[in-house]
Amino acid sequence: MKGVDRAALREKVALFPTGPGVYTLLDARGRVLYVGKAKNLRARVRSYLREGDDGRRFYRHLVAALADVECFATDTEKEALLLEHTLIQRHAPRWNVKLTDDKSYLMIEVTTHGEWPRARLVRARGRGKRGTVFGPYASARAVRETLRHVKRWFPLRTCSDAELRQRTRPCIEYEMGRCLGPCVRLCSREDYDAVVQEVLLFLQGKNDTLLPRLEARMREHSAALRFEQAARLRDQIQAIARTLEGQRVAREGAGDQDLFAVAAGEGVAAVLVLHVRSGQLTEPSSYELRGDLPPAELLNAFLGQFYRPQRYVPREVILDRDVSDRALFEEVLSERRGAQVAVKVQVRGERRALLELARKNAALLLSTGEEKRRVVDEALSGLQRLLGLRRRPRRIECFDVSTLQGAFTVAAQVRFEDGEPVPQGYRTYKLRTVEGQDDFAAIEEVLERRLAGGLERGDLPDLVVVDGGAAQLGRALSAAHRVGLPPQRTELVGLAKARPEEDPEAARGYERVHLPRGGAPVLLEPASLECRLLARVRDAAHRAAVRAHRELRRKSALRSGLEEVPGVGPKRRSQLLKRFGSLKGIRAASLAELEEVVPAPVARALQDYLSRPR
Ligand code: SF4
Predict the structure, then answer these.
(1) Ligand 1: which atom is nearest the Cα of residue 180?
(2) Do the domains at 257-368 and 563-611 have one common CATH topology?
(3) Are 122 and 108 in contact (CB under 8 A)?
(4) Distance between CA atoms of 307 and 305, rounded to whole angstroms?
């Protein structure tokens, strides 16, 4: 607490209440370092102002940066727990246990606000979402696949709220039997709500309830001679049953449970959560957490964040170790579920076997994570040594340009941190000053824009990799020089494949790294960790540049293909593109489908124009 008036801070804390509440620890710039809850606010916060530490590394860092503290008293510990969760979500403090990979998870939300619910993908944070959220799933592929099943088997609307309001007749989804057509009231509220309930059961994995329900409805349709609907339901039942069989391992005798196991290592821990729904083990979720809290404390902090308001709460929560807030969790979760929830530690039989499974997988997750970190660590140290870098290249950004003989030129930037791609750091640049085919000038312009912006925002990588040789690197260095980039802050290198005419090793896949100081490039062995890491970063940049280039061409083809059609301006062009994907897609669309996007006279003119021979 250098420069901080500890006496003043102690005086402030002496006025804190001795009841429950939430406190926030702040640094000298007023940033929230840590949010915690306490039974006795004054005693808890005082412990941060005592000399010495409690042996934990995080504690030492935290106390060193601490400059101010604030508190908020609550009536009960339960309120404090809820408020703590909200504040952690809002401030994402540096020293709280965070579900760091949370934001990258896609989840499925069944919107329950508004008149006609629908199922859609949402990001895991889900703040402001008003529906029931399912997930996270093991992968983006898994969540998309599940949503695809929902859309195929359950006739809920897929259109946006705005579109729903504007419709005067149903869209093609209705014609295909994939939507009940609530937009123009082609179904009753009861029928629609019944489908919503079925979707919820499906996403909860409650096939024991879902399938008999669908079968009953199928029989009703048959009895009423609605054979088409009955046949559709039969197909749906068979498809769902097949999927469930393939996806899940049956577990006899268990109800709905979440089972948690923690494996802790040096400054990092893995949490594995098994989800049992209607006695069946569904896809587990896994989390990697940073920090050196003891496992029980870590699990306690994790649980506080895991059960966000929209998350489904099962009947039983089973932990691999006891946590200090167990009784409190039981109370809060029971309230949220609207029925008693048991948070257990001692379990037997099947539950014990499941908990063992969770433990084993948490340990596995931790060891594979550790191995991955070790490899990345070695690759980063190797790069620093081989390339003579001043800084360890924890954050690398790579730039590549894609063009078609000077047309549709676009540059892409990708970012990797600790050897992993960071999608938030991906960016594409349309060039402002370069005309014709001049990749060198393109690199210079883009680097100048990126580095100037980065200097201003204090947001720079440790290493910039330019896809290319000495010439490209030279132009990138000019840009860096012009914006006044200190070389000790960010270093630049060029990465190029070794050329067969210059290097006999080229055929073996060596990479050449060109350095700012000039001289012979550093040759990286293809099998080395350093080479694999840099090649991975460069390939990601290449793919991003090609993707952006194709997108530009697609939009341009659409623009030139439609610019003579009366009534089709930029806004309608982009609506058409969004709906049909390409000029080919628009050409293949029926008049009725076109009319769903543009007014009838424009749709006719469009069809007429596109059917003309050219
Ligand atoms: S039929 Fe109506 S409600 Fe259903 S998706 Fe189409 S526009 Fe939306």
Answers:
(1) 4
(2) no
(3) yes
(4) 6
- List, for residues 353-404, the tens digit of each pLDDT value: 888 888 888 887 788 777 778 888 899 999 999 999 999 999 999 999 887 7
Higher pLDDT, 487 or 99: 487
* Comparison of pLDDT for 91 and 244, the residue scoring more: 91
| Mean pLDDT, residues 61-78 | 83
Question: Which fold would CATH assign to domain 6-91?
Answer: GIY-YIG endonuclease (3.40.1440)
Pick the CATH number of 563-611 from 3.40.50.300, 3.40.50.720, 1.10.260.40, 1.10.150.20: 1.10.150.20
* 319: confidence class by pLDDT, cuts 50, 70, 90: very high
β partners of residue 464: 397, 492
Token pair for residue 451? Answer: 């580095």
At residue 4, the pLDDT reads: 59
Fold exhibited by the domain 257-368: Nucleotidyltransferase; domain 5 (3.30.420)
- The answer to whether the beta carbons of residues 97 and 84 sit under 8 Å apart is no
Of ligand 1's atoms, which has the minimum distance to the CA of residue 596? 7
Instruction: Return the domain boundaries, the chain.
Output: 6-91, 102-203, 257-368, 395-550, 563-611
| Ligand 1 atom 6 nearest Cα | 171
Ligand 1 binding site (Cβ under 6 Å of any ligand atom): 157-159, 163-164, 167, 170-171, 173-174, 179, 181-183
Cβ–Cβ < 8 Å for 55, 17:
no
Q: How far is the CA of 605 from the centre of ligand 1 (A)?
A: 25
Kindly state the tokens that stand for 465: 């990799």
The residue that leads in pLDDT, 613 or 327, is: 327
Ligand 1 pocket test: which of 150, 167, 168, 187 has the largest number of ligand atoms within 8 Å of its C-beta? Answer: 167
Confidence band, pLDDT 50/70/90 cuts, at residue 513:
very high
Contact indicator for 132, 74 with CB cutoff of 8 Å: no
The Cα 580–Cα 592 span in angstroms is: 13
